[in-house]
Amino acid sequence: MAKKKSSQIKTVLTQLISDVLENSNIEALNYKQVSAKLNINDEESRETILEILKEQAQKGVFSEPQKGKFKLKDLKTFITGKVDMTAEGAAFIIPDDEFEKDVFVSARKLHNALHGDKVKVYIYAKKSGRKNEGEVVEIIQRLKTDFIGVIKISERFAFVTVDDKKMLHNIFVPLTDLAGARNGQKVQVAITDWPEGAKNPIGKIINILGTQGENDTEMNAILAQYGFPLSFPPEVEKEANDIPEQITEEELKDRRDFRETVTFTIDPADAKDFDDAISFQKLPNGNYEIGVHIADVSHYVQPKTYLDKEAYSRATSVYLVDRVIPMLPERLSNGVCSLRPHEDKLCFAAVFELDEEANIHHEWFGRTVIHSNRRFSYEEAQEVIENKAGDHAEEILKLNELAYILRDRKFKNGAISFESTEVKFQLDEKGKPTGVYVKERKDAHKLIEDFMLLANRKVAEFIAKKGKGKSKYTFIYRSHDSPNLENLGNFALFAARFGYKINMKTDKDIAKSLNFLMEDVEGKKEQNVLTQLAIRSMAKAVYTTKKTSHYGLAFDHYTHFTSPIRRYPDVMVHRLLAAYLNGEKSANEEEYETAASHSSAMEKRAADAERASIKYKQVEYLEENVGKLYMGIISGVTEWGMYVELIENKCEGMIRLKDIADDFYVLDEKNYCIVGQRKKKKYQLGDEVKVKVKKVDLSKRQIDFSLVQD
After folding, report:
1. Are 690 and 630 in contact (CB under 8 A)?
2. Residues 171 and 190 in one domain
3. Pairing outcome for strands 78-85 and 91-95
4. What pLDDT does 26 receive?
5. Which of 43, 166, 203, 429 falls between 20 and 30 A from 530, CA-CA?
6. What is the pLDDT of residues 211-233, one digit of tens each?
């Protein structure tokens, strides 16, 4: 133990010496000068410093331009980065500096760093032909200290077995810190200490989620795992409850009144929060005035309030399989702000005058008051479109015609249509899945989407054109970069195996050929695999204050204006737009860029939580079907197995390579396949295979298949 401690002291001392040499203005320093700068006076420590200087000079980290004098040869002795844990317990450190290479750290040199932590790493002198290797010397910031798992209690102690596959340590819990948890329950545990040299961290139970396997327990566990709170703090609820539903004359004073104009909402049948409504009237000149009216959340949620701070923190509503965890308390999301029918409601609107060819003759942005005449579900609106009859048929049919023109124009300009399949579950009263189906997107969905896209695009353009260069106005844009050509090229090679050609000459050519592919593949067994691979080859859309374009939609400027009940960036967009319409100066860019970055991160976290809930329900659904045979499509290949998506119900599981008995299979990453080493048989991404449900593990959300070979 003393030797280990001495080694760690030397590592830290090496870092301090490096800092001294890096910050020194003198060409080179001797060991006495280094000791003086570190305020070290005892002879033994000074001898250790001399020893380190000589060792590091031998390794090539320090140079010795004059005998006994040293300087830093390589300023990159230490780097900072994030821990990416491997299944074996070692890790790669992904450097903050994107031009640096990853650094390998063995399990014993992680010094209690966990997956996702930001760390400082000492890099060993590189030996010829070897990868960068190092040792963690400081944990700068933990990604998280709370984990979800199952508690096992014995007479003298307890351990939590963590669900997270990247967390390779069980957490020791003293019996005094169980907080009432019972053996086998699912809990949330917080790490409180991790003594030097201890194999396991010590923690305390902070939340008892319930009995393992129960629907509410598992859904709450997913929310807790991804850091979403299960309830609103009392002060937030109080602020929400104190907001009156009654609209005063004062609030109507500076708003355009649309209460006499035909207005309606179109939403999912089970929706309770209605963000957007559309108003419609034919003008005397034959054109159409179409208003996209959005719930005026920023009127009710004022900056720096408890409500605002909580909404900022959450940044988004979370949509799990069986529930919505709203960004705002129910009183606002389903009540005060929601554009319910037959009630006066305050909105922020984008109003357009369109002709028969959907050309815009006039646009207006500002605050409105509406009185929705009808709440349509998508199915009801679709029925009107298909039967050409029903409530507000004239308005809906004309809106649908104009939407078709807007959509066609968007695709001609280079937008890409990704219609990936959306899986939905039929659940019984206990939340157990009894059936799986794929959600269809019809004209009613697309009609609403196209008018929301129009509003988002035009709001972004309006602000983007207001100021240029140093006089530009700070705003929140939704940005989507063009794809990495290497990634797209790999996808094009794969798509060619199915007979689809991707023309990569220009961005428009890429978009055009991808759209042809998406049309051709619709309804075919390979649709989901190709769509998901195409999406993965694209960049990810993010929020930013930078005036950049949206590649996927082929818009020069784009924002999110239309869903402030469920997205915080939309609230910020409303505030900024209102300020600029009132002639106020540009807002602080740095502050809004930080908020944009936070919103992007929370959006990803919410998407991960949604996927985890879908995966859990897929596992739960197949629990009753262990041993059953299905046809599936190979949806992914890795060095340890191949993923298969079942054609019938879109559930995805893995066939482990070690379980395929007829040969020894290895991954051919370049060609998206696994290959038998003796018989050379290939299993390729997109191939159809017969599988048997071998086993399911609800706690790990894993499905294992075995390959049925003819």
Report:
1. yes
2. yes
3. antiparallel
4. 59
5. 166
6. 988 889 999 999 999 989 989 99
- What Cα–Cα distance (Å) separates residue 223 from each residue in 114, 229, 701? 20, 7, 15
Q: Which residues pair with 628 in a beta bridge?
A: none
Q: Residue 35: helix, strand or coil by DSSP?
A: helix
CATH number at residue 89: 2.40.50.140
Q: Which helix (H) or strand (E) holds 582?
A: none
Domain harbouring 42, CATH code = 1.10.10.10
Residue 431, domain extent:
251-439
- Looking at residue 6, what is its pLDDT? 61
Co-location of 350 and 434 in the same domain: yes
Name every residue whose Cβ is closer than 8 Å to that of residue 367 and which is 6 or more positions away in sequence.
254, 255, 256, 296, 299, 346, 347, 348, 349, 578
Say if residues 329 and 237 touch (Cβ distance below 8 Å). Answer: yes
Residue 572 domain-assigned?
no
- Report how many domains make up the chain: 5
> Has residue 76 got a pLDDT over 60?
no
Of the residues 72, 92, 109, the one at which a domain ends? 72
Which residue from 672, 610, 621, 612 is spatially nearest to 650, judged by alpha carbons?
A: 621
Question: Per the domain annotation, does 432 fall within a domain?
Answer: yes
Inside any domain, residue 59: yes
pLDDT band at 172 (very low <50, low <70, confident <90, very high): very high
pLDDT digits (tens, 9 = 90+) for 459-488: 999 999 987 777 889 999 999 888 878 888
> What is the dihedral sign for C-alpha 474, 480, 486, 487?
positive
CATH of the domain at 173: 2.40.50.700
Token pair listed for 125: 């002198």
Domain boundary among 141, 168, 186: 141
- Closest listed residue to residue 339, CA positions, set 376, 304, 365, 366: 376
pLDDT of residue 37: 86
Tell me the sheet residues that pair with 29: 70
pLDDT tens figures, 597-625: 999 999 999 999 999 999 999 999 999 89
Q: In this structure, are 305 and 384 located in the same domain? A: yes
Neighbour-count burial for 21-33, b at 16+ CB within 10 Å, e otherwise: beeeeeebbbbeb
Stronger pLDDT, 300 or 8, i.e. the higher one: 300
Q: How far is CA 145 from CA 200, 224, 240, in A?
A: 13, 12, 31
- Residue 102: predicted pLDDT: 87
Residue 427 sits in the same domain as residue 327: yes
Which residues face 646 on adjacent strands? 632
Could you tell me if 673 and 636 lie in one domain?
yes
CA nearest neighbour of 349 among 272, 266, 291: 291
DSSP state of 555: B
**Residue whose token pair is 């944009």:** 596
Do 122 and 158 belong together in one domain? Answer: no
Q: Is residue 91 a contact partner of residue 84, using CB atoms and an 8 Å limit? A: yes
Distance separating alpha carbons of residues 411 and 28, to the nearest angstrom: 64
CA separation for the pair 362, 110 (Å, rounded):
62
Do 109 and 155 share a domain, yes or no? no
Q: Is residue 109 part of a domain?
A: yes
**Claim to verify: residue 162 and residue 263 sit in the same structural domain:** no
